[in-house]
Amino acid sequence: MTGDVGLFGPESITWKLHREPILMLGGLRSLYMQALHPRAVAAVGQNSVYRSDMWGRLMRTSNYVATVIYGSTAEVDEAAARLRKIHSRLSATDPRTGESFRVDEPDLLRWVHVAEVESFLTTALRAGVRLTPDEIDAYYTEQLRAAALVGLDPATVPATAAEVEAYYAAMRPELGLTRDGAEAAFFLTLPPIPDTWGGRALRLGLTFGPPRWAYLGLASTAMGLLPQWARKMYGAPGWPSTDLAAGLSARGLRALLAGVLAVLPSGYRVSPAHQAALARAGLA
To answer: A GO molecular-function term, please (predicted)?
Structure first.
C-alpha cells in the first residue's frame, strides 16, 4: 500500500463486507433495531428533524459510515470529532420516567453501535455473502475501532458473534416498543417519497405508485430480517416462515443489484469513498 487507508484497509473483513450494496438494507434494519431502545429512540425524536428531512438525515449517516470505513485517518478523525461534539451538546427526557439524560451516554452509544454492525453483518449473510465464523468474529473485532470513535471504551463493546448474542439477551428486558419507537418505525415504513422518486405525483393523489411499492418491499424485508424476538415487539409474526421469506427476498435483491451494477459504467460500481481509498492504497 502506498497511502493512508484509515482504520481498516483492503485486507480487512470490513472492506470485504462493505463493498456489498445490499448493506443499504442492513442500514434500514439497524434503524428498526435501534427504535426498540426507549431512550435511544427518544433521543432521536427529541433532537432530530428526521420527520421533515428523513432522506437528508439518512444521507448524512451514510456519509459518516462511508468515511469511517474508507476515509483517511485525518478524514475519520475529523468526522468523529464533529459527531462527538454534536452529541456532547444534546440531552433528552425519558418519556417513561421524566428523567433527563445525555445523548452520549455509553449505554445508548453501545446499543446504536451494536445494532448497526450486527445489522450490516446479518443482512449480508442472509443475502448470501459468504463469511467464515472467524471472519464474522473478525468483523466485530475490527468494528471496535469505529466504536472508539464515538467515545466508547472498546473493552465494553461486544467483539465476537457470541458476545453480541449475549449482549442482546442481556438487553432484551430493557427494550420495548414505546410511542416514540412506534412513530419512528411507522415513519421508516411509510416515509415521504422524494420528488425524484415520483413524490410529487404521490402528493397529488397517486398514493401508492411504483416508488412507494418498491420502498415498501425494502422495508418489509428489513423488518423480516430482524430477530424473531424483535419482530414480536413490533407485533409482527415471529414465524420461521417469515425468516425464510426475508432471506429469499434479501438474496433476490442482492442478485438484482449485482445485475444492475454489471451493466453500469465502471465508475458507478464502486462508491466515491471506496474509489478514493483504493487510489490511496495504490489499487485503483
So the answer is: oxidoreductase activity
Mean pLDDT in consecutive groups of 10 residues from the start of the chain, 284 residues:
84 96 96 97 88 79 95 96 96 92 97 98 98 98 98 98 98 95 92 62 50 84 97 91 95 94 84 91 84
The three cell numbers of residue 167 are 449482549
Closest CA to 29 of 236, 202, 274, 212: 236
Please report how the helices 38-47 and 106-126 are oriented relative to each other, as an axis angle in degrees rounded to 10: 100
* 143, three cell numbers: 468494528
CA distance 4 to 176: 42
Distance CA 52, CA 74 (A): 32
Local structure of 238: helix, strand or coil: coil
- pTM score: 0.91
Asked if residue 167 lies in contact with residue 158, where contact means CB atoms within 8 angstroms, the answer is yes
Sign of CA dihedral 106, 36, 160, 74: negative
Closest by CA position to 18, among listed 28, 29, 8: 8
Q: Which helix (H) or strand (E) holds 260?
A: helix 240-262
